[in-house]
Design brief:
By secondary structure, the protein is of the alpha+beta class. It has a domain of 110 residues: Alpha-Beta Complex (Peptide Deformylase), CATH 3.90.45.10. The chain contains 3 helices and 5 strands, in the order H-E-E-E-E-E-H-H. The chain has a 5-stranded antiparallel beta sheet with strand order 1-2-3-4-5. Bound molecules: cobalt (II) ion. Cobalt (II) ion binds next to helix 2.
Length: 173
């Protein structure tokens, strides 16, 4: 079991487009195990590989924290978003202490591979839909603060700077 170091905003790895995984090997399975361990340790419900400094298209999710609900997706691709538009409070382990309301769809279709390299196709609903959408965003360098609206983003980034001393240098992403 390894608890990995979580990269905090504005670390550059969080803004990079992550690379697709070509073959699912023991190396990817080890990363996934460490990502789950790190996510549970930090009491998160989802984690994307760039958040632990690994720029690969891998996400892990668990909306309940129960072993049976673990979901790891390699090369996740959102194929559709539908259902209701739901506004809910979100946070991110890479932007500690900050939350914001983000509107996302209640149903998300996602394809990819599981940790054995098998193709998967999932329709995620409600909280899992939100997690999958949030984590897949990370693989394209998109953070939830990009989805709260311009003014709200300014306000919450000011509060983040106050709380952590970390701030964005004004660079536009
Ligand atoms: Co996040």
């Amino acid at each position: 079991m390894s608890i990995l170091d979580i990269k905090k905003y504005p670390d550059g790895v969080l803004r990079k487009k992550a690379q697709p995984v070509k073959d699912v090997t023991d190396a990817e399975r080890a990363i996934i195990r460490d990502m789950f361990d790190t996510m549970y340790f930090t009491k998160g419900v989802g984690l994307a590989a760039p958040q632990v400094g690994i720029s690969k298209r891998i996400i892990v999710c668990n909306p309940t924290g129960e072993k049976k609900d673990e979901l790891a997706i390699i090369n996740p691709k959102i194929t559709y978003r539908k259902g209701r538009r739901v506004k809910d409070c979100e946070g991110c382990l890479s932007i500690p202490g900050i939350t914001g309301e983000v509107t996302r769809f209640s149903l998300v279709g996602v394809t990819g591979k599981d940790q054995n390299g098998r193709d998967i196709l999932i329709e995620a609903g409600d909280l899992l839909a939100r997690i999958v959408d949030h984590e897949t965003d990370h693989l394209d360098g998109v953070l939830f603060i990009d989805r709260v609206g311009f003014l709200k983003k300014k306000i919450i980034m000011r509060s983040y700077k106050k709380k952590t001393g970390l701030f964005c240098t004004g660079k536009k992403y």
